[in-house]
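In the previous lecture we treated proteins in isolation. Real proteins rarely work alone, and many bind small molecules. This record shows how such a complex is specified: first the sequence, then the SMILES for pyridoxal-5'-phosphate.
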Amino acid sequence: MKLSKRFQAFTRLIQSPMAKEHYAYFQPIDRSFGTEVEVHGQRLIMAGSNDYLGLTHDPRVQEAAIQAIKRWGTGPGGSRFLSGNMTLHEELEARLAAFVGKKHVVVHTTGFLTNLGAISSLMQKDDVILFDKENHASIQEGCNNTGARIMYFEHNSRDSAERRLAQARESHPDSVCFLITEGVFSMSGDVANMPELIKIKRANPDLVFYLDDAHGLGVLGRGRGTAQHFGVAQDVDFIMGTFSKAMASTGGFIASDHEDALTYVKNNSKTLIFSAALAAANAATVLECLNILEAEPERVDRLWEITRKIRTGYREIGLEFGDNESPIIPIYVGDEFKALRISKELFKRGVFALPAIYPAVPKGKALIRTAYMSTHTDAQLDVVLTALGELAREFGIRVQDTQAAQAPVRDDNAGAMAAASS
Ligand SMILES: Cc1ncc(COP(=O)(O)O)c(C=O)c1O
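The predicted 3D structure, ligand included, written as tokens:
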């Protein structure tokens, strides 16, 4: 088969007039002002960023990055294993360990590479992995890479995870068993059911608990993450986090009290050994974010104030949305093209929010992923709510619209006949 044939179906799909009109992704942001961005010359309120604390534009953070560039240069010049390891990385690892409540940390270049490298180093092909069905693609890729038996459990369900564990014990009695969940799920915004899931760990101390807290860090537990929010950090064996969300940078880390396991990861993670180190500016950014978070935890409080305001607003509009405890608030639309069209209309009304469609979410379960930042002003939030209110009516996506569409059609003749016969 020729290489060009391989892509024909996708090329046809993406170049169809329908797709050309509605394709929503790879929007070229020409400039960012934090809570606002400029796209094709239009200024838009950003309502889909993971920069939850709005620190990417904090002057102290930017200055820390500039100073790091002056001291270490713009690029690392090699992997950490060879010529790219900086004292800055080691300082960051020590600070992060204390922040998330673990003894040791290993920093990687991105969150994706952290999951891929750490999971591939920690898990082996005769292991069993209990895997929440909604876990992120980077976790899936890491697990696939190990060749271990992956057993999926129903999203956030302790019962389902326990059933899987019992099956694993039966079929693989000698295997090491891992349980992997996210702290805050990236699409739904659901917070992990840690109080219940951790009971499984407490009843089975040899179960290895791995928590991907990409979206919990900086957000829950006054910024210290999901495990600390629920007071269970000591029960979680591995906490993975990213710098690409609330930490205003890129990069990722794995934290644990198991020193030997992390020393192994540090010396065996292919994505650490064979990939360039985290650039100095990115590492310094995270260190300054940690300084700010420790000094100004009220930034997180403002995020919650905003989240509450938005939830109330969505409820008043009648939107069907992910009613959870995080600043990721998906608006459920269902139909893929409707979601694409609503997103486009939001842009016209000055709001940047993108749809998630199949395969990112199940078929027919398209959503608009909205996410908020602690630096959004009330005026900006009002613009977003007004735009969503108008579009929800126009596109018939309010709960009352869906209920009306599902209600049985009243047969007035039948009523009249019944009255006549009585
Ligand atoms: C749950 C989760 N884990 C890992 C990652 C990967 O992180 P990064 O973007 O830093 O590579 C993401 C980001 O999309 C995520 O949402």
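Summary for your notes: The radius of gyration is 24 Å. The first helix runs from residue 3 to 6.
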